[in-house]
Every structure is written in C-alpha cells, then in structure tokens.
Amino acid sequence: MNIKQTLFSAIISIVVIFAAISFITLPKLQTDFFHVPLISKLTESTIFSDALLFMMSSEVPQLEGTLEENGIETPKLSTVLFEAASGITLNNFSSLLDLELPGLNTSSNQIQFAGNNADSTNTPIESPPPDFEDLLKEDTNEEEKEPPKKENETDQQEADVFVYHSHSWEAFLPLLGEEKTKPSDASSTDNDKNIVMVGSLLTEQLEKQGMTTFHDTTNVTAGLHEQGWDYYDSYKFSRETVQEAMATNDKAQYFIDIHRDAQRKDITTTTINDKPYAKLYFIVGIEHENYKQNLEFVEKLNNSLEQKYPGVSRGIFLKDKSEGNGVYNQDLSANSILIEIGGVDNNKEELNNTSEALAEVIADYHFNAEKVDTNQ
User: What is the model's pTM?
Assistant: First the structure.
C-alpha cells in the first residue's frame, strides 16, 4: 500500500509542478500569479484537493483512516491530468462556462482596493449589449425634440478635464419610468436619462470647483452605426474621440470615461451624513505597460474619497482582456481613468451627490499638484 501511495504521490507531484510551470508562463498570469483570486481558483478544485490529501495521508496514518471513513477515494490519475490540462472539472458544468463566457466568473476581477463590504459577491457587473435597433429607433423619436446645447470648440481647446462616455446609452431605471424594471432594460439615448446626464452633473460640479471642463455628449450608438461598428467597438470609437481632443487641446490633463454598473441598489447606494450617495468604483486596465501610472493616480483619488466620504467607493478593480477591453484608453495618458458611478437603480439625487464628492476630490488633487509644481 505504501509503495502504491508513494508512486501516486510522485506522479501527482510531477503533475502539480508541470501545471504550476504552465500557469506561471502564461502571459496573463505573469503579473498576477500570486493574486488571491487565482490561488483560490486552484484550491477550489476538489480533484486537486483530494489528491493533496492522499499525498499527506501517506505520512499521516490518522488522516488516511479519516479519508477511508468518509468514503473519499484516491482520484484517478487520468482525471487529475484532464483537469490540469483543460481547466475543466468533470461533473461541474460551470467550469466549462467559466472558460467560454468572458466575465462569468466575477472573482477573476482583481480587487486592488476593496471598499466597505466589497467581496466576490458584489463586484462590478457589466451590462449586456443593448439592442442597437431599438436605440436607433429611439434616436429617430429624439430628433423631434429640441437639440441639446453643445459646448463650443473654444471650451474644448481650453479645458483641463475631458469627460466622455464609451457607453453613452447606459441608463437608470428610475429615470426611464415604471415599465422599466430589469437591468437589461436600462438603455437609452436620452441624455436626461442615461449616463451622459451624470457626465453633465460632474462637469457642472467641476466647474464650480474652478476647473475648466469639456463634456463630450456624442451619441455613441449612432456613431457606431455610422461606422458600421457594433457594441464591441465602443472603446475603439471613444479612443478616436479622446485622441481628437488631445490633438486640439494641449492643456487637457484629465480624461474621464464615465459609466454605470449593472448591480442593484442595495450594492450601489450608501448614506453619508444623512445624504444618499450612489457608490462608485474605479477600473484600471492592465493590458498596457504603463498601467501602474494610472493606478497610482486612481489610488490617490480613492484614498481622498475614503477620507472625506467613507463608504462611497466600492474600490479599485484591475481588468485585463479576459474581463473586457483591458486598456480603456488609459495608455493615452497617466491621468486617463474609467469611473463607474452608481448602478441601474440609482436616482438623480444620489448621482448628483456623488458627482459633487468626486469633483471635490479631483479638484483638490489638481490644485495641490499645481502647488507642488510651482514650489519645485
């Protein structure tokens, strides 16, 4: 029996070493192999856990007896090899879905800083792609309304902050009417009901703080349609918008892409000093070599938010290509950031309070940075 266990332990050891080397040498994992969610993913496997227990039982007789009493059998070598090579756990259908459906396994989000009560159950949820045909029909109806006022070209050329939206259709259920109740319903090209409204609130608050700001209100749905592109080209489209702004404005220092989450109100709302706030979080794309500069900038904003408005931030999340775009135009500037403000259930009051808090923090960072530059 001991010879059999020793031989099995040796084989398992070789398999584990082989698997570890394979994981480490994957490009995606070179930067985050020792990140907790990844280790948790490996230890979740019952096959590997049972194999390790049987390895230990060869040295601990009491453990061997316990395994036998609980009916735990020695895993088949073929099963261990299959899981190590494929990442699929037999008799576990969800492991196959995790591989084939990007974003299904939310624990793969890397939480750089976890806000109050943030864990794997309330991490960000990406909204499903909207029905572009319905949104384009809505655009036709919107043409009958008075066109929105647009900032003039001089404003863009002189602005310190450029606010824009890669997913301008992301909307809020309380603003859409009682007939809209599901997160998948929260899409609209009406800028009084979608994320563009939040961009306007933030722009107004930044201006009150003394920062010159330009808000790009481009209808991304229509823009993508004109280019013959779809939902998955959103960041390609917004990248052209940001590059155009940078080409015409040497003064612009901050590029802020505003989104909203698809989580429900209990996760995206908090109360601070008897005022309701829509929680926010920061996304940092790690698929470019200078992402740590963006992360450093975001960490400063997040720390300031935590000090002044504890609980309003849900944290900082790092994302690679497996979780979405992976860059989010952040390679264009160290001060390029993506902020998700609120969720599908937040109302205008909550969103405005958060915009005011965020504007205060950004302005404090900006003017303090100016003082440091002046002193130097």
Answer: 0.70
CA pair distance 20, 316, nearest whole angstrom: 28
CB within 8 Å of 74: residues ≥ 6 apart: 8, 50, 54
Per the document, the length of the chain is 376
Answer for the pair 334, 294: CB distance below 8 angstroms, yes or no: yes
Helix (H) or strand (E) holding 340: strand 336-341
What pLDDT is attached to residue 134?
86
256: phi then psi, degrees, rounded to nearest 5:
-120, 115
From CA 40, how far away is CA 45, in angstroms rounded?
A: 9
The residue ranking higher by pLDDT, 264 or 155, is 264
Look up tokens 């929260």; give the residue: 186
Cα gap 222→216, rounded to integer Å: 14
**Angle of helix 2-25 versus helix 77-86 axis, rounded to 10:** 10
Query: Which is nearest to 346 in space by CA: 267, 272, 275, 281?
Result: 267
Q: Which tens digits make up the pLDDT trace of 325-371? A: 899 999 999 999 999 999 999 999 999 999 999 999 999 999 987 66
Residue 254: its H or E element: strand 254-259
